[in-house]
Amino acid sequence: xxxxxxxxxxxxxxxxxxxxxxxxxxxxxxxxxxxxxxxxxxxxxxxxxxxxxxxxxxxxxxxxxxxxxxxxxxxxxxxxxxxxxxxxxxxxxxxxxxxxxxxxxxxxxxxxxxxxxxxxxxxxxxxxxxxxxxxxxxxxxxxxxxxxxxxxxxxxxxxxxxxxxxxxxxxxxxxxxxxxxxxxxxxxxxxxxxxxxxxxxxxxxxxxxxxxxxxxxxxxxxxxxxxxxxxxxxxxxxxxxxxxxxxxxxxxxxxxxxxxxxxxxxxxxxxxxxxxxxxxxxxxxxxxxxxxxxxxxxxxxxxxxxxxxxxxxxxxxxxxxxxxxxxxxx
Length: 330
What we know:
alpha/beta; 12 helices; 14 strands
C-alpha cells in the first residue's frame, strides 16, 4: 500500500476550502484526516464536499491529534505564527499560507519553533509551482536569457478585498507585493540590496481610511547589478493580471497567462478571448501542485521547495518597500 500523509486542514475559507479539496480528492499521497474552523457552519459545509475523518471548531484538537502528521494552515493571517508554533511543538509538519506573520519578531519566533522541533515548514507562495513560472525559472538557470538586466513582476487584482481584511493584512506591500518580491528573488536567483517604493490611493478613497495605498510601484537593485521592478493595483477592470519577465543579454522570457481557455472569437467586431477574473482561476494548477510537493517532501524527508526563510525574505522586502514609501527614500 502506498504511504500517505495524514493531514489536518485549519481554516474553511477560500484557500482552506481549496486545499481541503486538494488533500481529499486530488492528491493520492494524502488523507484528509481532520478539518477545523471557528465557524461550525463553514466546517459542516466544507465537510459535506470533502468528507474528512473528523471535524472541529477548535484547531487545537487537530494539532494535538497524534494520528495527524501534518497541518495546512489557511486561517486569517494574524493567527498563522501562533498556529505554526503550536503545530511545531506538537511535532507536525506544516504548510502555511502567507504570511507567516505580519511583523519580523513574530516570524522569527515561529521559524525558531520550527527549527527546534525539527519539522518541515512550506510557505504558500504558489507562483513557484505554476508551469509557466517554472519553465521561465528553468530557462534562466540554463543561461538562455544570459546575464540578467531587468526582472519585472506584476499583480493587479480585479477588485480590492473588504475593508475589514485590509485593516488586518499589513498593507499592499506586505500583502500583495510579497508574491512579486518572492518571484523577483526566485527568478533572478539573488537578493535585493536596495528597495525604493511609491504608492497612491487612486481606485478607492476608502483604502486611505485604513492607511494603505491601492496602486504602487517598487524598484529594487539586485546584488548582481540587475534592476527589478514590481507594479501592483487593487483594481483591474479586465480581471486578474499577473505577469513576469526576465530580460538579459541573450533575450527575454515572459510569463503571461491571460486566458481561462484557449478559445478565441474572431468577428467583424474584432478579436477577443476570455480572461481569468480571480486568483483561483489563474493559479488552480499551482495551488494543487504546491500541496502535492508538500506531501512528497514529508514522505521523502526532503527540503520544502518554498521554505520559511523564503517567506521571511519576501516579507522583509515588503516591509522595506512600505518603509521606503513612508519615508520617501530608498
